[in-house]
Amino acid sequence: MTFNIETERLLLREMRDEDLDGLFTLDSNPNVHKYLGNRPIKTKAEAQKVIDSVKQQYKQRGIGRFTVIEKATGNFVGWSGLRLNTEYNMNGFTTYYDIGYRLIEDYWGKGYATESGKAAAKYAFEVLNLKRLYATTHIDNQASHNALLKIGLHYLNDFYFPPEKMTLRWYKINNPKL
Question: 0.90 cut: is pTM over it?
Fold first, then answer.
């Protein structure tokens, strides 16, 4: 499966094995995992499992997170995009399309989460013709809250997520063409 979505500053494409070093840099950073349960990865083998899982999602579900590349430098920025969630009961939902992102700390504060998220939402609605997307963020992650609102999602409510023992915020965006 091949995805190539371009924005002004970013390229969103399918996740590949060559993203291993970038993904390890991303997910081994404790600051990146501050609002994700504080469990950064410790090995490249763990990063490879993430890549393998996303590639499997492409095959089984037709969608998975996209690798984000900065066009000006060719650098791995992180991931963004869509995922069909079937693993977790999230605020009463067990099967839904999620929009999300995770960026290397050096790329925080540049608007890349918003830019890549808007492109992913456009892809979801215009190419996949999805009816709606959901998102979550930790209740204390104000930067992610702001990015989700800028992407166009609407804050719905807070809820407690027992598997991670944390309070999360729940968001939704409907396809404007449906």
Answer: yes
